[in-house]
Specification:
CATH topology of the largest domain: Lysozyme
Oligomer: single chain
Radius of gyration: 21 Å
Number of domains: 2
CATH class of the largest domain: Mainly Alpha
Amino acid sequence: MKKIICLLGCLLGGVAVFAQYNEQDIRDYIEQYADVAVKKMHEYKIPASITVAQGIFESACGKSRLATEGNNHFGIKCHEWDGDTILVDDDELQECFRKYASVEDSYNDHSLFLTNRKRYANLFQLDIMDYKSWARTLKQDGYATNPQYADRLISLIERFNIARLDTLYQQTYGSGIAQTSGGQTLTQTTKPNASSSAPTKPSGTDKTGKKVFTAIGSEYPSDQSPFTYRKVFKNNNTYFVIAEKGDTYAKIAQDIQVMVDNLRKFNDAGPDDEPVENEIVYVEAKARGSAMRIHTVQAGETLRYISQRYGVQLRYILKYNMLEENSVIHPGDQILLRR
């Protein structure tokens, strides 16, 4: 896999720190911080795609010294800061940067940094789904000195389809939201710019009305399999296919040359269950854990839905959370995805 050498540009200057990472590191970073970015999008009306892309670029996927020792993923310096600090060479030697107790604290401070400064007020007049305008306005308003800053953010978002997180925000918290200066919200009567957002992710329920995890192919890296003509994708290092209209587990099992009982086991499906259109169907055993440690339950989600979303075996999710298969979960509950 090609290595990416990144000279990190930083807030208000550009931290002169070289860091090396690869494409899988980027995908892992997106998966790890997707939920917190969507949460901050809901709270502060900053596109999750922009937040994650900045985190990748500013922290070298969390591998820079500022990130590993200071939990600072956005390169924010010590201006007007009374908390802990860390010294890092930047435009000058041993410049002062903010240090956080956790990465989520860094994400939260990044949101406050943008919403509380007049220089960034223009951002909150933009369509929340228009990541291109957000990237260009960030550069225009002086977020970074790198002349290619906006183009690099846009390239990251489009290459790795990070805009799907903005679509996830719409699906989770509802569409029709526009923002005003300072992060206040108002009802939006026009539709988001379709050209600036990811394709709408299909939704589905099984025959009992329970929510199932569906996907569009462009959300995940694709691969080739010598055992089937179907397109194969990867989530959490586990291969899956996307169910077509009218598919059954028996038909998919035949197509991919595995036993139907094994296929049901891979997907924690009962003997009478069948996949719905666009549902993820794993063709091998899911992983025992995820790079994302905690998932916050949203309305309609079940333990099986969470298992399918993260590619983590249901029995391990039950074990980590001391739950039973028939345990009821509620919106806001915290579910461990690994030890």
